[in-house]
TrEMBL record:
This is Putative amidohydrolase. The lineage of its organism: Bacteria, Pseudomonadati, Thermodesulfobacteriota, Desulfuromonadia, Geobacterales. PANTHER family: METALLOPEPTIDASE, PUTATIVE (AFU_ORTHOLOGUE AFUA_6G09600)-RELATED, PEPTIDASE M20 FAMILY MEMBER. The Mn(2+) ion enhances activity. It holds the Pfam family M20_dimer. Keywords: Hydrolase, Manganese, Metal-binding. It comes from Geomonas limicola.
Length: 430
């Protein structure tokens, strides 16, 4: 168990690194890279881990098809007999144009699916990577006080939903020892810097992306009787999908079905021959998720049949992305929460409600064979957070072009929280 000497030593070491870590953060923030293109970010992390004495493996995922181009990083520090603990950080950024006005704001633009897009670290992954670097430095300096094996993961492609699976498919758990526990943090604007939140059980929902293509018969806009209009079918399907959660699931079973994109047609006077819809499904239970997919297939087929579409032109339903829910193992979460309270203070650690947002960290648990725990790391400016609470006007959230975390106190808390959690899981010495 952590003691007062450990905590004082930890605090001194983190404070000594803080200035350098803030510089690292600003560099990463100003130079974001999209999912599958994290070449410079992964190389930067690999250099930092090697400088701390870690054995580093780069290019994990390189045998897979695009877009995962082998930018996964594994850092290994074997420090005698004891538990194996994995700590993961995600590397990628989002296609968002930053509007924070910060002096180190991103001005990066990159190619994405043949189109030039702006790029921004709007989900805190720059904080995650920097916190991992700080934790790597501190844990290496504390080697005399613990025994075990530390596995640090720099994971590409979290925003694309396939980076964790890509690394595992490429043998991540053959390249490093299979962990006894896996940890991660996630920055949030819903808490001020200096605070954290955690909860056992359901933490984040699974995500399944579905592509539905409705086929019809095209015609001139003036002659709808000669067409089988997929635009009308798409409108009917969007409305029908709303009944899945409201009428096919128990009110006690959380789930979300969202139609985020509809594409079809090229002009106002042309009835097109197909319309494509992109959907997302979020749930905590795989059985619920599978039932929703089956309902989408049934509804699409039924609407096409009712419109008189020939059987050979039946709708096409394809699962594009599917990754598991994040389930915090109760025993592991209890030990992490204990460490967070010790290092941050009991009043600074909160009970986190489950959310329907999604993350692919759950893959590292191999369908709950390995205990996992993720916790929220407060990143908001405390004064702005206080004013927001008083006024009722929310601060810019994750995935907002205005998202502005406060680096220094956030990194100070993130490194201390991560190191304390690891130390509470490995064998400690005196």
């Amino acid at each position: 168990m952590l003691n007062s000497y450990n905590l004082e030593q930890l605090d001194r070491l983190v404070r000594a690194e803080l200035g350098s870590l803030v510089d690292c953060y600003k560099k990463l923030h100003a130079n974001p890279e999209l999912s599958g293109y994290e070449e410079q970010t992964s190389a930067f992390l690999a250099r930092e881990l090697r400088a701390c004495g870690y054995q580093v493996t780069e290019g994990v995922g390189k045998y897979l098809k695009n877009p995962w181009r082998g930018h996964g990083v594994l850092g290994l520090l074997v420090n005698g007999p004891g538990p194996v603990v994995l700590v993961r950080a995600d590397l990628d950024a989002l296609p968002i144009e930053e509007q924070t006005g910060l002096p180190y704001a991103s001005r990066v633009r990159a190619q994405r699916e043949g189109e030039e897009v702006p790029v921004m670290h709007a989900c805190g992954h720059d904080l995650h990577v920097t916190s991992l670097i700080g934790s790597a430095r501190v844990l290496a300096r504390l080697k005399e006080s613990w025994r075990g094996t530390l596995v640090l993961v720099g994971q590409p492609g979290e925003e694309g939903g396939g980076g964790a699976q890509a690394m595992l498919n490429d043998g991540a758990y053959r390249l490093v020892p299979r962990p006894d526990a896996a940890l991660a943090l996630h920055a949030t604007a819903q808490l001020p810097a200096g605070q954290a939140a955690c909860a056992a059980g359901n933490f984040m929902a699974s995500l399944t992306e579905v592509e539905v293509t409705l086929y019809g018969v095209g015609a001139h806009g003036s002659a709808p009787e000669r067409a089988k209009d997929p635009v009308v079918m798409a409108a009917q399907l969007v409305l029908a999908l709303q009944t899945i959660v409201s009428r096919e699931l128990s009110p006690l079973e959380p789930a979300v079905v969202t139609v985020g994109s509809i594409h079809g047609g090229s002009a106002s006077n042309i009835i097109p021959d197909q319309v494509r819809l992109l959907l997302s499904i979020r749930a905590y239970d795989d059985t619920v998720r599978d039932g929703i997919v089956a309902s989408i297939e049934r509804m699409a087929a039924g609407i096409a049949l009712a419109a008189g579409v020939p059987a050979e032109q039946a709708p096409r339903v394809v699962l594009r992305v599917a990754h598991p829910a994040n389930y915090n193992d109760p025993e592991l979460t209890g030990r992490v929460t204990e460490a967070l309270r010790l290092v941050l203070g009991t009043d600074q650690v909160h009970q986190a409600p489950p959310v329907m947002a999604s993350e692919d960290f759950g893959y590292w648990g191999l369908n709950r064979e390995i205990p996992t725990c993720m916790f929220w790391l407060g990143a908001a400016d405390p004064e702005l957070f206080r004013k927001s609470q008083e006024s009722g006007v929310p601060l810019p959230s994750l995935h907002s072009p205005f998202y502005t975390p406060l680096p220094e106190p956030t990194l100070y808390t993130g490194v201390r929280a991560t190191v304390a959690s690891v130390l509470n899981l490995v064998n400690q010495t005196r």
